[in-house]
Amino acid sequence: ASMLWGGDNLTVTNVGDCRGVLYRMANPLTGGADQIIPMSLDHDFTRVDERNRITLTNGKIVENRGGCHRLIPSTNDYPIEVIKEQKLALALSRSLGHIILSKYGVSSEPEFKTTKVQDKDLLVMASDGLWQVLSNQDVQDILKEV
Is 113 helix (H, G, I), strand (E, B) or coil? Predict the structure, then answer.
């Protein structure tokens, strides 16, 4: 993920396992509630559009013993032994520069989202190492304590 901040505009781009979330804290003078504004969507196999792109290009989504989903090339093109030996599996649907799996639906095209920033807005950009253990709400709760 990356971000570009110019004037009062914030643009977040995302490819892969990072997420950007904007936290807008309520203004005590004007009232209102705190807001969580997702600035990116996860590139994983729960998204129908991502799954469709993969299956249309003969990519295969498999589940390993640990319950993690992986994208692998068609077993018509690569035997399972070669897939394991060459580690031809990804846990996400977008990635920069995977030469083989790009033929099976892995996209390097980023998604963009732009919003107007306000005073006291906080942006958290992190990889799945954070987001697999904390929800957007969990992170907002931590920010409120700081």
Answer: strand
Q: Where are the beta strands (DSSP E) in 15-105?
A: 18-24, 35-38, 60-63, 69-72
CA 24 to chain centre: 20
Nearest CA among 57, 41, 20, 37 for reference residue 92 = 41
**HSE-up of 60 (CA within 13 Å, CB side)?**
15
CA distance 63 to 59: 13
Indicate the DSSP class of residue 45: T
**Residues 55-87: tens digit of each pLDDT:** 999 999 999 888 889 999 999 999 999 999 999
Q: Give the N- to C-terminal CA distance of the chain in Å, as an integer.
A: 24
pTM of the model: 0.83
- Structural tokens at position 131: 């987001």
Tell me the HSE value of 121 on the side-chain side, using a 13 A CA sphere. Answer: 18
Q: For residues 69 and 91, is the Cβ–Cβ distance under 8 A?
A: yes
Contact 111, 14 (CB under 8 A): yes
In contact, 117 and 20? CB cutoff 8 Å: no
